[in-house]
Design a protein that fits this description.
Blueprint (H helix, E strand, L loop, with lengths): L13 H14 L5 H12 L6 H7 L5 H12 L3 E2 L16 H7 L1 E7 L2 E6 L5 H11 L3 E6 L1 H11 L3 H11 L5 H5 L2 H8 L2 H16 L2 E8 L4 E7 L2 E5 L7 H11 L11 E9 L2 E12 L2 E9 L15 H11 L4 E6 L6 H12 L6 E5 L10 E4 L8 H9 L5 E4 L5 H12 L3 E6 L4 H11 L3 H7 E13 L5 E4 L2 H6 L12 E4 L11 E12 L2 H8 L4 H10 L5 H10 L5 H8 L9 H6 L17 H14 L1 H11 L10 H17 L1
Parallel strand pairs: 1-4, 3-4, 11-15, 11-16, 12-13, 12-14, 14-15
Antiparallel strand pairs: 2-3, 5-6, 5-10, 6-7, 8-9, 9-10, 16-19, 17-18
Helix pairs in contact: 1-4, 3-4, 10-12, 11-12, 15-16, 17-21, 18-20, 20-21, 22-23, 25-27
The structure holds zinc ion.
C-alpha cells in the first residue's frame, strides 16, 4: 500500500532490506557481484553509511537507480525534482542544517499530513526526528540525494550562508583538537558536508577539463588548485576547519590508511562522474602544515588516443607511420615528464592493433586501459622491474612490445635483443631532443653496431597549449622578432601574423583550450647510422637529420604559432631546455639554429632550487626571452595569457615529479 505513508516506519531489519536491495540491482544488471564485494570491503575499511548511499558514492550505481529500487522495495512513491515545491515548505519549523544533515525535504503540507522526500528511507532517526519536529503525520517519498540537496540549497538558503551558521552551531572545538583523534576524523570524513565537498571538488575539476587536483595545506587554509591544459589555477578553498576531514575522506575513498600521517601514500580509485567511469591516482605527501594531496584524473574520455589528432603535421605524419609500421626495430619517444609521450605511444599501439598481432605493454604506471592489449604493471618491490618482465614477456612471443621507459642499460639491452629477434619495440626515454636519445643509449652502454641495426627512429615531443579559437587575437610580429626567431621560414606572407591569448567564457578566461604536441621525428637513415658508428655528438646527428629534411620541434612549434594554433611564448617555453649549459644561446638563436648544446636531462639535476635558479637565469640571458620582454614592452604581446614565471613553475613541478619517480 503506497498511500498509507503516515504509517510508514523504516523496517527494523535494515540488513535484510539492504540485502534485497543489492540482489535486485544485480538481477537487473545494474550492479555486478564484484561491485557489491567492493562496497562491502570499503564498508569494512571504515566507510560509514548505508549500502545504497555507499554504492552511489562509489559510482557503482547511479543515485537515480538507488532511489528507484529503494522506492520499489519499500512500496514508497518516488519524488523527482519536478515534484519539488517552488517555495520552501514549513520553513519556520525545520532548519537548514537538519535538512542537510538528513537529506530530507518537506514537499507539501495538506490535510493528510506533510509530504517529505528523503534520500535514505532506511534512516529511522531522520524520519522520527522530522515527525517530532513538525508534529504531523509524514507522507514519505523517496528522492534522489543530489536533487534533494540542490532543492535544500535553493529553498532553504544557500550552502555558503549555511556554512557560516553551521560553523557557529557546530562543536566549538577546533580542528587541532581532532588532529590526533582518528575515530573522530573517520566520523568527520563520513559526514555529508565533507562528502559533498570532496565530490564537488572532483566533479568541478572534471567539468573544467583539469588533469590534476592539488590540495595543499598552508597555515591559513587548504589551498586547492586545478591543473588545466598544463597550468595550475587556484579555485575556492573549502572551510579551513574541514581540512583534516577532507584529506581523510580522500584517503577513505582511495582505501588508504587514514591513521598514517607521517609517510607518503599512493592509491587509486574509480568513480562514476556524469555517467562515465573515471580513474584517479592519489598521492599523499606530508608537508609542514599537514598532508598535501595530488589527485591525478585519468579520464579516458577526455584523451583522444588517436594518432591523427595529436598534432603531427602533414609533413611528419607519413614519416612517422613509415617507422611505426616497420615489422621490427625500436621506435623511441622522448621528452621530459608531462610531454605527452605516453599518449603518443598509446595512440601508436591502437593504430597497430589488429587481431593477428599480439601486443604487450610493460608500464609504470598503467595510465589507461587499452582494449585487446596485454598491459603489465611494473612492481619493483617484488622484483618485477622492466628488465625482468621484459625477459618473461619475450617467451610469450608477442609481435609488438611497449616498454614504459628505458631507465637502465639492462632494459636497453633486452629491448635491442627483442628488436634483433624480430619484434617491434616502442619505448620512451628522458632526453631533450630526438638526436640526444641516440647518444643517451650509447652513453648507457648499448653497443653502437647493435643500435644501428635496431633503431628505426626517435621522436621528441612537447605539449603546448592550444589557443582558444573563440578569442585568440592576431597581431603583426615585430621585425626584430621575425629576425631573431627566424620566423620568415614559417610564413610566405609579407607580414607575419602571430596570435595571442585573450580569454572568454569558452576558455574560462585563460585564452587557451586543450593542448597539442609539437614533434620532431628523426628517421635513422644510412647517414645517421654512419654517424652513430663514428660516435658523433648529438648536434652532429641533428644537423644531419635536418639536412635530410627533419623538421625540429622548434620548426613544428613555430609553424603552429604562425598558423594560430598556439602562442609563440608557448613554443619558446617548452623548447627552452635545449639552451641549458649553452652560453652561446643568444648567438644560436640569431642564426636560427636552436640546438648546439648537448641535451641535459632535467631530472638529473640534484637540487630543485638550483634548477629553478638556473632556469630563471637562463630565461634572462636568452635572446628569446629578451625579445619577448622587449615585445611586451612595446605592447606587441600585451593582452593577458600566462606569465613566463607561471610556466616556469609548471616546468619545475614537472621536473620535481620526474626526480621523485
Ligand atoms: Zn576563449
Amino acid at each position: 500500500m503506497t498511500n498509507s505513508m503516515s504509517t510508514y516506519s523504516p523496517p527494523n531489519d535494515v540488513v535484510a532490506v539492504e540485502e534485497a536491495f543489492a540482489q535486485r540491482l544485480i538481477q537487473r544488471g545494474q550492479l555486478t557481484q564484484q561491485g557489491l564485494e567492493r562496497a562491502t570491503r570499503v564498508r569494512g575499511a571504515g566507510e560509514a553509511g548505508r549500502l545504497p548511499h555507499l554504492l552511489s558514492m562509489l559510482g557503482l550505481v547511479s543515485e537515480r537507480e538507488v532511489a528507484q529500487v529503494l522506492a520499489e522495495l519499500l512500496g514508497l512513491p518516488l519524488a523527482l525534482a519536478r515534484d519539488f515545491p517552488t517555495v520552501a515548505v514549513l520553513e519556520d519549523k525545520v532548519n537548514r542544517r537538519f535538512l542537510s544533515e538528513f537529506r530530507i525535504l518537506p514537499l507539501a503540507d495538506d490535510a493528510d499530513g506533510v509530504a517529505v522526500a528523503v534520500a535514505d528511507p532506511l534512516n529511522r532517526v531522520s524520519i522520527d526526528a522530522m515527525r517530532l519536529r513538525i508534529g504531523r503525520p509524514i507522507l514519505l517519498r523517496v528522492g534522489i540525494a543530489s536533487e534533494i540537496e540542490g532543492a535544500i540549497d535553493r529553498l532553504h538558503g544557500r550552502r555558503g550562508s549555511g556554512r557560516a551558521a553551521d560553523g557557529r552551531a557546530a562543536d566549538s572545538a577546533t580542528d587541532d583538537a581532532f588532529e590526533h583523534d582518528i575515530e573522530r576524523l573517520k566520523d568527520l570524513a563520513s559526514e555529508a558536508p565533507v562528502i559533498r565537498m570532496v565530490n564537488q571538488l572532483i566533479s568541478r575539476a572534471i567539468e573544467s577539463r583539469a588533469s590534476d587536483i592539488h590540495l595543499e595545506p598552508f597555515e591559513d587554509a587548504l589551498h586547492v588548485r586545478y591543473r588545466i591544459d598544463g597550468a595550475l589555477r587556484e579555485v575556492e578553498s573549502p572551510p579551513n576547519r574541514y581540512r583534516a576531514a577532507i584529506i581523510s575522506r580522500i584517503k577513505i575513498m582511495a582505501r588508504l590508511n587514514i591513521a598514517e600521517r607521517r609517510l607518503p601514500q599512493d592509491g587509486r580509485m574509480k568513480l562514476a562522474v556524469r555517467g562515465t567511469s573515471v580513474d584517479f591516482r592519489i598521492a599523499i605527501t606530508p608537508t609542514l602544515h599537514g598532508e598535501s594531496v595530488v589527485i591525478r584524473i585519468l579520464d579516458r574520455s577526455s584523451v583522444a588516443l588517436d594518432l591523427a589528432s595529436l598534432g603531427l603535421a602533414d609533413e611528419d605524419f607519413g614519416g612517422y607511420l613509415g617507422v611505426l609500421h616497420r615489422p621490427h626495430g625500436i621506435l623511441l619517444v622522448t621528452g621530459p615528464t608531462g610531454s605527452g609521450k605516453t599518449t603518443t605511444l598509446y595512440a601508436s599501439l591502437l593504430r597497430l592493433h589488429a587481431p593477428e598481432k599480439k601486443i604487450v605493454t610493460i608500464e609504470d604506471p598503467i595510465e589507461y586501459q587499452l582494449d585487446g592489449i596485454n598491459q603489465i604493471q611494473v612492481k619493483p618491490g617484488i622484483g618485477l622491474d622492466f628488465a625482468n618482465i621484459l625477459r618473461s614477456v619475450l617467451r610469450h612471443d608477442p609481435d609488438i612490445i611497449m616498454i614504459g621507459e628505458i631507465r637502465d642499460v639492462e632494459t636497453a639491452e633486452i629491448a635491442v635483443q627483442a628488436a634483433l629477434t624480430g619484434h617491434l619495440v616502442l619505448s620512451t626515454l628522458h632526453t631533450n631532443n630526438a638526436a640526444s636519445s641516440i647518444t643517451r643509449l650509447l652513453d648507457m652502454g648499448v653497443q653502437d653496431f647493435l643500435l644501428t641495426s635496431t633503431l628505426s627512429g626517435t621522436v621528441a615531443q612537447r605539449l603546448v597549449r592550444r589557443l582558444c579559437r573563440h578569442c585568440r587575437e592576431s597581431y603583426v610580429a615585430m621585425p626584430e622578432l621575425v629576425l631573431q626567431l627566424g620566423l620568415r621560414r614559417y610564413s610566405n606572407s609579407p607580414e607575419i601574423m602571430l596570435y595571442r591569448p585573450k580569454g572568454c567564457t569558452e576558455c574560462h578566461g585563460t585564452g587557451f583550450f586543450g593542448r597539442i604536441s609539437i614533434f620532431e621525428i628523426l628517421v635513422v637513415s644510412d647517414a645517421i647510422r654512419r654517424l652513430i658508428l663514428q660516435r658523433a655528438e648529438s648536434h652532429e646527428l641533428e644537423r644531419a637529420a635536418v639536412q635530410e629534411g627533419m623538421r625540429t620541434m622548434y620548426d613544428d612549434g613555430m609553424s603552429k604559432a604562425a598558423a594560430g594554433v598556439t602562442a609563440i611564448e608557448e613554443v619558446l617555453q617548452v623548447t627552452r631546455d635545449v639552451f641549458i649549459g649553452d652560453s652561446n644561446a643568444g648567438r644560436c638563436l640569431q642564426t636560427g639554429n636552436f640546438r648546439i648544446s648537448p641535451a641535459v636531462n632535467p631530472a638529473a639535476d640534484s637540487d630543485r632550487s638550483s634548477v629553478a635558479h638556473n632556469r630563471r637565469g637562463l630565461l634572462r640571458s636568452t635572446a628569446a626571452a629578451a625579445s619577448i620582454a622587449s615585445a611586451k614592452e612595446s605592447n606587441a604581446l600585451e593582452g593577458g595569457g600566462t606569465s613566463v614565471e607561471e610556466i616556469l613553475e609548471t616546468i619545475e613541478e614537472a621536473m620535481l615529479v620526474a626526480k621523485n619517480r
